[in-house]
Amino acid sequence: MKESTFSRRAFLAQSGSCAAHLALAAAVMPKTARGLWSASLGRVVAREPFGNLERIDEGVWALVSTPLNGDSTTVSNGGIIVGKNAVLAIEGFNRPAGAQWLAGKARELTGRWPTHVALTHYHADHANGIAGYVTENDHPVVRATARTRDLVIERNKPEDASRAAAVRDSVVITAAEPSTLDLGGRTVRVVPRLGHTESDVSLELDEPSIVFAGDLFWNAMFPNFVDAIPTKLATSVRALRRSRDTLYVPGHGPLGHGPEYDRYVTMLDEVERAARAGLAAGTSATDVAAKFSLPSSLGEWTLFNKIFYQRAFEAWYRELKPA
Ligand SMILES: [Zn+2]
Predict the structure, then answer these.
(1) Which helix (H) or strand (E) holds 265?
(2) Which of 46-50, 180-184, 218-222, 304-308 has the lowest mean pLDDT?
(3) Ligand 1 mean position to 121 CA, how many Å?
């Protein structure tokens, strides 16, 4: 996609919204991604070496982690949604200290320790700190799909008894259909999806329109395809996109609106195109990865790890290659 096409469409889609100026800036600034990384779409209420807590609406906060600074307390993004009767924390983070920090912020901001915790998927950086929510007096209800619960216990290393104990009695999120969580005057839609892993969920608010996308959305960071089912991922990311102005909280990277989300979808399409072309030409996934680069029109995408391109093509080859 040409830069001008992206920028014009992004601007038209967002004209009048708070992201319009970002889309307009994208038309003239080559380093779109870097600019977005440092821009806060919410109001920062707490700053730590591992991330910033941003207030994004009445009773809704997002933790935007900054692991590239070298602090891996949280690594993934997450957040807090408060209702009259309950406080939902989203994600368990990389270490118990991360979950404990977010829970402490919830108490500071809302007067209550989280009553519920939702996991978007099993990956260690989203789940391994979950025991940090449990104290002598506080035992938040953990919600996860059965598959996510099992994978946290079976796969995440190093094994940890307090983590296993925290997720073992999870209230199961049905993977069959969307469900709701009533926090009191605020209903969170819990939508089972897949593609980043075999079991993902998004946590969604309709008014205001806010989507906690888990790792189905990465903003300005190239995603980890280690467990990806790329065709399912492509379907899920399109299903998550709302037509009205929406704030998307990605699993990694800064908050985004429609233009940032669309840029991500276009980026995934580039990976798919290169994978299909490589397969058709008989090129190995390793060689495709070695030669791959994203068009500059898509702005900058940080690679968490050099291996991420290779994992992406390996995931595509797993799905597309005839057995
Ligand atoms: Zn993940």
Answers:
(1) helix 258-280
(2) 304-308
(3) 7
Mean pLDDT of 190-218: 98
Residues with CB in 5 Å of ion ligand 1: 123, 215
Measured between alpha carbons, how far is 61 from 110 in angstroms, rounded to an integer?
Answer: 11
Ligand 1 centroid to Cα of residue 28, in Å, is 33
Question: pTM to 2 decimals?
Answer: 0.88
Locus of tokens 């925290």: 166
pLDDT tens by residue, 150-161: 999 999 999 999
Distance 124 CA to ligand 1 centre (A): 8
The confidence band for 231, taking pLDDT boundaries of 50, 70 and 90, is very high
CB atoms near residue 101 (< 10 Å): 22
Burial class, 36, CB count within 10 angstroms (exposed 0-12 / middle 13-18 / buried 19+): buried
- The alpha carbon of 150 and the centre of ligand 1 are apart by a number of angstroms equal to 15
Going by pLDDT thresholds of 50, 70 and 90, the confidence category of residue 3 is: very low
Nearest alpha-carbon partner for 124 in 148, 89, 88, 100: 148
Among 178, 119, 181, smallest CA distance to 146 is for 119
Residues in a beta bridge with 108 = none
What confidence score (pLDDT) does residue 80 get? 98
Q: Identify the three-state secondary structure at position 51.
A: strand
Burial of 58 (0-12, 13-18, 19+ CB in 10 A): exposed
The Å distance, Cα 21 to ligand 1 centre, comes to 30
Alpha carbon distance 64, 246 (integer Å)? 17
The H or E element containing residue 187 is strand 187-193
Q: Rounded mean pLDDT of 20-31?
A: 36
DSSP result, 222-251: PPP-TT--HHHHHHHHHHH--SS--EEEEE
